[in-house]
Amino acid sequence: MKGKTAATAMLLLLLTFGVEADRCETGSRSYKGACNDHNCWAVCITEGSTGGFCKVGLGCAN
User: At CA 32, angle to CA 29 and CA 24, rounded to 5?
Assistant: First the structure.
């Protein structure tokens, strides 16, 4: 039973890191405006991400 609990916890941890990496490294597909964290966040949410922020060089990162 302890093995299943540990395996489940490890799987959830790995999935969390995968989602976080996507959120921080990928540029927005549709946002073309000036850097603004609130606007970037809203657009990234509509693109299916968990959020977003303005990142110099990428515009909006989600």
Answer: 50
